[in-house]
Amino acid sequence: MRREHHLPVSRTARYFTLGEPGDALRELWFVCHGYGQLAGRFVRHFESIAGAERMIVAPEALSRFYVEQAGKSHADTHVGATWMTREDRLSDIEDNIEYLDALYAHVRTGLASTPLNFVALGFSQGVATVCRWLERTDVRVDRAILWGGLIPADVDLAASPALRAARLTIAAGTADEHATPELLAAQDARLAAHGIQCERVSFNGSHRIDRATLARVAGEGAAAG
């Protein structure tokens, strides 16, 4: 008889950073990439806002794959990563939560004990990962930025202390097919029903990180902090 089993194992996770620890550091950002992206390329979107006062940490999803392109072999195709698929999804969710908790603890040990403003940003599939992490983590999150994605239906907004306590910003392009005005309006209603306020930020464009909008969002966060 076939039986499914699970065995927790240790593995090596990769992450990238921008900015350096120092006395001037005031903000720490975790930025979670979208489906089919790699952290090393994704983190380049944040070069313009990193500096002595803001450190960016980009964790990479644990599952990498070849992004298939017709007529090309694996040797010539890009590699991407995914936070999860529908296959054994609950195990992947648990692994992601433990991974991000461990990465936060690891990064924090290398920084001064001075309180830092902590920002968690998710883009596309990374939105779901960030939301599920904030549903379960004990990490204090000052601000959550959900960009080009939606809060998963399985996230219990009534029992998500980190998400509820965070200042919530939702960003999307006017032509974003994954976060359409209709979907965002429905999400607004869901958040309001749970007493969660959010600020909406939009820009003319599609499913991407818009650097001018990012600079504005980051500047507002610094001012608020």
Fold topology:
Elements: E1 15-18, E2 27-32, H1 39-42, E3 54-59, E4 63-66, E5 79-82, H2 89-109, E6 117-123, H3 125-136, E7 143-147, H4 161-165, E8 167-173, H5 181-193, E9 199-203, H6 211-224
Helix pairs in contact: 2-3
Structure report:
- Strands 1-3-2-6-7-8-9 form a seven-stranded mixed sheet, sandwiched between helices.
- It has helices at 39-42, 89-109, 125-136, 161-165, 181-193, 211-224, and strands at 15-18, 27-32, 54-59, 63-66, 79-82, 117-123, 143-147, 167-173, 199-203.
- With 225 residues, the protein is an alpha/beta fold.
- Strand 2 (27-32), helix 1 (39-42) and strand 3 form a beta-alpha-beta unit.
- Helix 2 crosses helix 3 (125-136).
- The chain has one domain: 3-Layer(aba) Sandwich (Rossmann fold).
- The chain is globular, with a radius of gyration of 18 Å.
